[in-house]
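Q: I have 59 residues here and want to know how they pack in 3D. Can you give me a structure?
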Amino acid sequence: MAEVVSEFFTVVWVDMVPPDTLAELVPYLLSVFVSVALVSGVFRVVGRLAEAIMDYRRF
């Protein structure tokens, strides 16, 4: 699991080193939340496409 988290942070260009000050924390958290939202959105789209393909094969 640690490798997956490390790879995720590498893909979204976020350092694994936590920020030292509040001025560094806000952009860090913002980039993490945006990247998690984008990844979940991509999985949602892929899931909907797979669901549409499965429903199409029934008819």
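Q: Anything worth noting?
A: The mean pLDDT is 82. Residues 2-58 form one domain.
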